[in-house]
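Troubleshooting entry. The earlier prediction with fructose -6-phosphate gave an output that would not parse, so I re-checked the input for stray whitespace and re-submitted. Clean input:
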Amino acid sequence: MCGIVGYVGDQNACDIIIDGLKKLEYRGYDSSGIALYEKGELEIHKYKGRISNLEDAIADYNFKSTIGIGHTRWATHGEPSDLNAHPHVSMDKTIAVVHNGIVENFVELKEWLIKEHGIVFTSGTDTEVIAHLIQVCYKGDLTDAVFEAVDKMRGAYALGVVCSKEPDKLIAVRKDSPLVVGLGKGSNFIASDIPALLKHVREIYLIENNETVVLTKNKVTLYNAERQEVKREVFHVTWDADAAEKEGYDHFMLKEIHEQPKGILKTLTRRLGENNEINLDGITMTKDDIESFNKVYIVACGTAYHAGMVGKFIIEKLAKIPVEIDVASEFRYRDPFVDDKTLFIAVSQSGETLDTLAALREAKRKGARVLSIVNVVGSSVARESDDVFYTWAGPEIAVASTKAYTTQLMCMYLIALYMGKTKGCLPIEEYTRYLEELKEIPDKIKTILKQEKVIQNMAKELYKREQVFFIGRGADVGVSYEGSLKLKEISYINSFAIAAGELKHGTIALIEQDTLVIALATQDALFAKMLSNIQEVKARGAYVVGFAKENNKEMGRQANQVFYIPECMDEITPLLSVIPLQMLAYYIAKLRGCDIDKPKNLAKSVTVE
Ligand code: F6R
């Protein structure tokens, strides 16, 4: 969940590292720090708070170093503080380490280092053990020392290591936490994610688990866990560097909300051949495989899980196969019923979420066929899956996921349609009707985005509320969960989502005079039922904001405020109804003065349990 950057070359390491860290700030932002080799020793600077604190503090130092490492942190062990910020240094001050992940056996290593080597610890982190461990393993060769230290460690880590005794060398290690290497001319880089490097390089090595990389300014060598040299194909990044910039929007979240028509269209057109054929290029799953599945499991976390809720609804309906959904952190520990007749769908924007990755491994171990829906090409989930359905959302920087969610939904529709058609349970006219409707979605989203002012005015009315309930039925249930998560994570309003029919079984006790209820009623087939649920909460004094399709004007008479989405098939409304909810969350958070792109306590990529 933290971000690491490292550089070795001819240029100013400090500028490159600070710039790279800023691109990774979405991964964690409670403290940051840098280690540079200056005038024969390691200079360490680290501060609690945002990277700007670090930048301001070192602004006048005028560092000239050409090698260094940096870190932006999301605390796991030890509170956010100057002391706990990375880099951590060995007791003799010769070795500095940045780390993303968790050292699971740090207590036992710490005790051993104290008892056997008289090490004095200064921070409350697990990472500090790594620096000391490398120091005690050091016998004149940093690479040897890192190998020996890593052998003693259990857990997940991406590490960057520099040593004042070998100032031309930067070492990186990866186990279960993301790591990429950027290949320049007379300059080489490490980072947790590609955007940190795009300003400088487009040629990348995607580092695999249990690999160690030794970088000097002119050479990059990769080793496997047995210390054999390994060769890696260069991955050429084709995205525009601007994709990771705000381009005039106040926040990445708003920019990403507006990018949805483009991302959805790309996700659809990449898979659509002539005559409305869905092409599964690069996917090895055959017709026989599809016919052999007797169950689908969709497993994910957070917003990606909410995409799975819609996926269950749509796959069961179109492909006539039972679908179970589960949050990854539960799935992995409850011995789920999975076998070689199970299609396991992992959904993840980052492709690095540790729980999702662990669930995927568990499903694979039990024989399931693994198909993943992933945004980041070459990420761990993508690499460990049998097949990957990429979302073409482009880099998502804001912590609150928006365009990843809607592109994940588009993948779900395509998978459901493909399976339904292949199994012969979806008539061709129906299949074609769905696809024609899906093709219209990007333009319909643009129509919704044009009504931003309406949502802004709604936000002005609602932003002081401290409690909200989202209700919906059918395909609207998953969207209610997503709308509620979006609002709570960026505005800190206590928000709760529930299937509208469930309200009366307990939660309605919380509805009183002026309680805000956001009612999603976009399903024609369930509209009358939703109106009854709205009546129930209004009878208890609720203030209702309704979302319905244009033709269901009755909503305007029942709700205190209403927002209409364009007409479309019931099953496809989630792609539309979530857009005003994202915008509402954004404008409410903005009016409350929240730090929208970096909400408190969160990080974009959750690589710890
Ligand atoms: C919320 C959000 C998170 C992520 C979750 C899974 O806006 O972004 O709930 O959806 O942490 O992340 P990925 O999709 O990267 O596996």
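This one parsed fine. The CA atoms of residues 85 and 110 lie 18 Å apart.
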